[in-house]
Amino acid sequence: MKKDTEVSLFEAFETKNLKLKNRIAMAPMTRSRAIGSIPNDLMAEYYSQRSSAGLIITEGTSPSPNGLGYPRIPGIYTKEQVEGWKKITHAAHEKGAKIFIQFMHTGRIAHPANFAHEGKVLGPSAVQADSDMWTDESGMQSIPEPEAMTEDDLKKTIAEFSQAAKDAVTAGFDGVELHGASGYLLEQFLNPHVNVRTDQYGGSIENRIRFVLEVAESVANAIGAEKTGIRLSPFNTFNDMPAYEETPETYTKLVEGLNKLDLAYIHLVEGFARDHKKGPGLLNVLSEKFDNLVIVNGGYDRESAEKALKEGRADLVAFGAPFISNPDLPRRLQENIPLAEADKSTFYSADEKGYTDYAFSKN
Ligand SMILES: Cc1cc2nc3c(=O)[nH]c(=O)nc-3n(C[C@H](O)[C@H](O)[C@H](O)COP(=O)(O)O)c2cc1C
């Protein structure tokens, strides 16, 4: 990326592999409307409403029965799920948006009561998260201790990711975003307090980044590196991820490895990094180390997004919560139309209220 004072959030953006109508991405957001873990018509309507984004990144979606830790999140490991997603990719494409699916394997952040099919709560090590989780069956529950993944579990999980990636392309997705952020399976491998393995997947930085790189490589081999992106959240502590000294070195080495794989993009969630004294410096290092696209996210508005683009810190800016309550967010940003506030109480409820009933601006 170069400094470019002419660049606009609202103009079309084109690379060899991706053609977007603007530089606005809709950030991945779990909305828990996938009853039975199968994408449905209501979800198609929701994404269709938000298809003025150049790029939609879907809610976290499990590539494995073991990765579906929360209630009513979708999967992409059965035929019915793949069929359900077709409605959504079709709806987005009809309105001219590109759409990537986020692969979220929840790893140790899971309760078996939420699994839609038989599954196991897995993690790099048997290190339990000190967190509670909602289950539709019996309300709030503490999260159980995960089973430490065996070599066989690692191989199977990598195969699930690459199979799901092929199925995502069959379902019409333009690509896949690997969820390497927010304390889910991939990030669990990076953190030395959560990953205490003594084999080649734990200990040194090279070992802790190995699983993430292997997953990324297998997905890239399955569908093409140009269709594979990854989300990272350096310094994240959400989901009981204790801070660790080697964060900058870990992410620098990881991004060097991802860059060698020639992935389409890295998507940096800035919140925790921005608040950390070494964070902003690290974000710049990561952006500079990566040759393809950089997406940034976390608390952006029109002004800060345009600044990030013009300073060359990002190619695209992702917006999360503002897209929940403003289905026509790009137009509102462009025309300075006031934004509606999102109702947090319906973020994860099960029906259309607080989901598809937010108004488009009449201005
Ligand atoms: C309701 C809700 C659900 C979210 N679910 C996900 C998710 O599934 N995957 C993910 O990577 N981030 C998820 N996030 C984080 C957002 O993608 C984004 O990083 C965060 O909202 C900060 O961006 P913002 O300030 O533009 O909202 C979620 C955020 C919200 C508000």
Strand order of the largest sheet: 3-4-5-10-11-12-13-14
**Quick one: overall form?**
globular
The CATH superfamily title: Aldolase class I
Determine the number of helices (DSSP H or I, runs of at least 4 residues).
11
Each distinct ligand: flavin mononucleotide
Question: Mind describing the biggest β-sheet?
Answer: 8 strands, parallel, barrel
Q: Structural class, please?
A: alpha/beta
Mean pLDDT over the full residue set: 97
Report the CATH architecture.
Alpha-Beta Barrel
Number of beta strands: 14
Quaternary class: single chain
Gyration radius, in Å: 19 Å
CATH class assignment: Alpha Beta
User: Uncertain runs with pLDDT below 50, 5 residues or more?
Assistant: none
Q: What's the domain count?
A: 1
CATH topology category name? TIM Barrel
What's the SSE pattern? EEEHEHEEEEEHEHHEHEHHEHEHH
What fraction of residues sit in β-strands? 15-25%
The portion of residues assigned to helices is 25-40%
Distance between the termini: 36 Å
Summarize the helices and strands and which ones pair or pack:
Layout: E1 13-14, E2 19-20, E3 24-26, H1 41-49, E4 55-61, H2 79-94, E5 98-103, E6 122-123, E7 132-135, E8 139-142, E9 147-148, H3 151-170, E10 175-180, H4 185-190, H5 205-223, E11 228-232, H6 247-260, E12 265-269, H7 271-275, H8 279-289, E13 293-297, H9 302-310, E14 316-319, H10 321-325, H11 329-334
Parallel strand pairs: 3-4, 3-14, 4-5, 5-10, 6-9, 10-11, 11-12, 12-13, 13-14
Antiparallel strand pairs: 1-2, 7-8
This protein binds flavin mononucleotide (FMN).
